[in-house]
Amino acid sequence: MAIPRILVVDDDADMRQMMTQLLRQSGTIALPAATEREVETHLKGGRVDLILLDVMLGDENGLDICSRLRREQDVPIILVSALAADHQRMDGYAVGADDYITKPFNPDLLLARVKAVLSRARRSSSLAYRRNTKTFVFAGWTYHAKTEEVLSPDNIQVALSRRETALLQVLLANPHIPLTRAEIATALDVTGDSAQSSEAMGRSIDVLVGRLRNKIEKNPKTPAVLRTERGVGYVFAVDVEARDG
Fold first, then answer.
1. Which percentage of the chain shows pLDDT scores above 90?
2. For 107-218, where are the alpha helices, taking DSSP H only?
3. Rounded to whole angstroms, how far apart are CA atoms 15 and 31?
4. 102-158 pLDDT per residue, tens
5. Which residue, among 174, 188, 234, 182, has the nearest Cα to 48 in the 3D structure?
6. Angle at the Cα of 203 (from 202 to 209), degrees rounded to 5?
7. Which of 16, 58, 174, 209 fits a 20 to 30 Å CA distance from 221?
């Protein structure tokens, strides 16, 4: 249920902004970067699910960066380049890229390739999850992913609806990350086709958040776990520990 966090690496500010905006509109969290140092900063600062990496980064070489990342990271990498020859594509795959997209590209094609790479990564994660089911601990609470049981700090089981459980799963996967109502709705597969339906979607998320707060907060009127992030949406403001079994 984690909302994909995608790192967009391009030294062209216009291209970086266009790709970032496109990805955000598709329901992902897009993080811009222009240099290898910025890439390293993002990787140290939080979870990254996919990197879109330009091959020609001014004085830096995207192939070299990809090669170095692959020695240290399992994160999927899609190379983006104006170089379209077969041998240039093969060079990209040789350094560990998961896919290779040439400029100029159709935005829908880019999104499709991003979705495909993320889907492959999720399937691998899903297999690992089934072999190694997690238990999540937060603010004294415990959530058992296999049984979907929620235990209070007093070890009392608290019943959540399916929608409340789904929201909790999204939050557990994105601790300390401010999420908009639209990002939460996307993760919960709530969609709307018009401005009015978008407003209704936002209200439904607010209602769902209120219901979950009533069950996991000591004082729902002054929440300490699931807090409102002014001007953004909501943030799960506590540490989450994932344990095996």
1. 48
2. 107-131, 162-173, 181-187, 195-216
3. 13
4. 988 899 989 998 988 888 776 555 444 444 457 899 999 999 988 889 999 999 999
5. 174
6. 90
7. 174
> Averaged over 16-24, what is the pLDDT?
94
- Domain 5-128: CATH architecture, name and number where available: 3-Layer(aba) Sandwich (3.40)
| Whole-Å CA distances, 28 to 58, 130, 183 | 27, 25, 7
181-237 confidence digits (pLDDT tens): 888 887 776 544 444 456 778 888 999 999 999 999 999 999 999 999 988 899 999
Q: What is the architecture, at CATH level 2, of domain 134-244?
A: Orthogonal Bundle (1.10)
Give CA separation, 217 vs 150, 168, 225, 237, in Å: 13, 13, 7, 12
Alpha helices (runs of H) in the chain, residue ranges in sequence order = 13-25, 36-45, 62-72, 86-94, 107-131, 162-173, 181-187, 195-216
Query: Tell me, what amino acid is at 239?
Result: D
Q: Where are the domains of the chain?
A: 5-128, 134-244
Q: What is the pLDDT of residues 79-100, one digit of tens each?
A: 999 887 888 888 888 888 888 9
Distance CA 141, CA 147 (A): 15
Beta carbons of 50 and 76 less than 8 angstroms apart: yes
